[in-house]
Specification:
Elements (H helix, E strand, L loop, with lengths): L12 H14 L3 H13 L2 E2 L2 E2 L8 H46 L4 H27 L11 H7 L1
Antiparallel strand pairs: 1-2
Length: 154
């Protein structure tokens, strides 16, 4: 066992009284209580276990580590879900194409074009109301892929 070394500190009377009270309530001498506080604060070994607080685990490094873990989790989720989303999109496209193949035999090209334009207008109206709600009346600078269909009608 290492030999005890002397450490002497000076403090004001109020802090000295607080240390006395807390050491008494912990059942330790003031010297042992101060030693425990120092070891806890600096993350030193306390009877074979590390303290809960460590000087190496400061707030900035903890935030950086958490940020890196969140970014990695998001990237992993993107990789896992991209193929699922692509599959769902291809199924949706297949169903839409199938429906149009069935409908084109029953409707003239003019009726189909009118149906497409009507759907484009509904989607544009829906998009405009979402944009207005999100930006409190502001217009979006991003052109819609529907704009070309809507321009034909006007």
């Amino acid at each position: 066992m290492a030999e005890d070394a002397r450490l002497q500190i000076y403090t004001d009377e109020a802090l000295n009284k607080k240390l006395d009270k807390r050491a008494d309530s912990a059942g330790l001498s003031k010297s042992k209580y101060c030693e425990l506080i120092l070891k806890n604060h600096h993350g030193m070994d306390l009877d074979g276990r590390l303290s809960r607080y460590s000087a190496n685990d400061d707030v900035v490094s903890t935030i950086d580590k958490a940020s890196a873990e969140i970014i990695a989790a998001i990237e992993e989720l993107k990789q896992e879900t991209t193929s699922d989303v692509e599959h769902l999109q291809s199924l949706r496209t297949m169903y839409v194409l199938s429906l149009w193949e069935l409908l084109k035999e029953e409707y003239s090209p003019e009726e189909r074009e009118t149906a497409i334009k009507r759907a484009a207008l509904q989607m544009a109206d829906s998009r405009a109301s979402q944009t207005t709600t999100e930006s409190d009346g502001g217009e979006s600078d991003n052109p819609s892929p529907l704009d070309s269909l809507l321009a034909i009608e006007q």
